Amino acid sequence: MKTRSQIPVPKIAFEGTGTANPLAFRHYNPDEVVDGRPLSEHLRFSVAYWHAFRGTGGDPFGPGTIRRPWEEGRDALSVAKKRLDAAFEFFQKIRVPFWCFHDRDIAPEGRTLAESNRNLDQIVAHAKALQQATGIKLLWGTANLFSNPRYMNGAATNPDAHVFAYAAAQVKKALEVTQELGGENYVFWGGREGYETLLNTDLKREQAHLAAFLHMAVDYAKAIGFDGQFLIEPKPKEPTKHQYDFDVASGIAFLRTHGLAKHLKFNIETNHATLAGHSFSHEIEVAAAAGMLGSIDANTGDPLLGWDTDQFNTDVKELTLAMVSILKAGGLGRGGLNFDAKLRRASVDIEDLFHAHIGGMDAYALAFKVARRIIADGKLTRFVADRYASYDDGFGRDIAKRKIGFKELDRLVQTKLGEPKPRSGRQEYLENLLNDYLH
Description:
Blueprint: E1 13-14, E2 24-25, E3 33-34, E4 37-38, H1 39-43, E5 45-48, H2 49-52, H3 76-94, E6 98-102, H4 103-106, H5 113-134, E7 137-142, H6 161-180, E8 185-188, E9 194-195, H7 203-224, E10 229-232, E11 242-243, H8 248-257, E12 264-269, H9 270-275, H10 280-289, E13 293-297, H11 316-328, E14 337-339, H12 350-377, H13 379-387, H14 394-400, H15 406-417, H16 427-438
Parallel strand pairs: 1-2, 5-6, 5-14, 6-7, 7-8, 8-10, 10-12, 12-13, 13-14
Antiparallel strand pairs: 3-4, 9-11
Helix pairs in contact: 3-5, 5-6, 6-7, 10-11, 11-12
């Protein structure tokens, strides 16, 4: 399948750290073999269609600044196909193996649900042909249940059952097209699943409705034979003041409470973690400890701003800590690293889109390599193991195995153990050690 080039930038090559070419990879070589697999399979990079090809540079204080040539035209479906052609040209040139989308990103919404579905079917057929021609795969699909005014009070948590039903129909179709395109995951992002004030909210009922919605999705996936992984993406606020999927921990509690824990894992976003008052690696560790680490939305926020700025992350230190946690958890499996990040308002050239993804991919590749050195060296692992060694035998092991109680421990302290001696956590030493790996 041949399409006319719309992007006057060559395919990005790996040129190593000595290059002065700003349109080249310095650390990310997708063909580099690590532990028997190419680096592209370890990192599984993905481009977020909504930011890369629907982002306009608009913000709450002004309209968009970014104009692309493929957006010209009066027929929405023709423009959607031309936009998709440009996207797949970009995917190939930036050398990512995956892409992600919302249903309304790729196809225009119609006047009725049936018309929206017909539009989606046309664009999905075009996307399927492009995937087959290029080898690019779908990491995950999802439904936009937050932009249309019908969802102003949420979708699955909406007080109006009519809106709930409409959202269910939309997700039904989104699951079908995700399956049609071979999507390896399906993501639920509850952008408005929460409340603004308890004066008009039945919190318990809304959470029960959200659980019912997710159970319906699980049941329908089984009915159509969709074997992709279901993911929840937590976010603490914005646009809703109190969102039910605040962070990974609250998400785990919700899933376990409603019998959904075996059906869903987490898609963790860096910017959402920090908005919740956590570090990126904290959220990864919490999900991994529960066996529920699924995928990553690779972005970051601005520490001076209190909203979701969705910037490309080039902080190698932060990403190294995250990659250590991911590697210790055994990797992301069917998940990947999706660049849910957008250009800054003043970055209006097509080259800026390349610079942004090159920077993010290089930063993650470097962090991956540093994290592997940290784990192979074993100093941090041995330090942590030694810090908890008292639980490996004797009464400590009995504590861990729940073979001892308060009465026995009280007797031990009063007759044998006495006062504990403080042991240093040596945080400063460990921070210096981390810097040694980074430089």
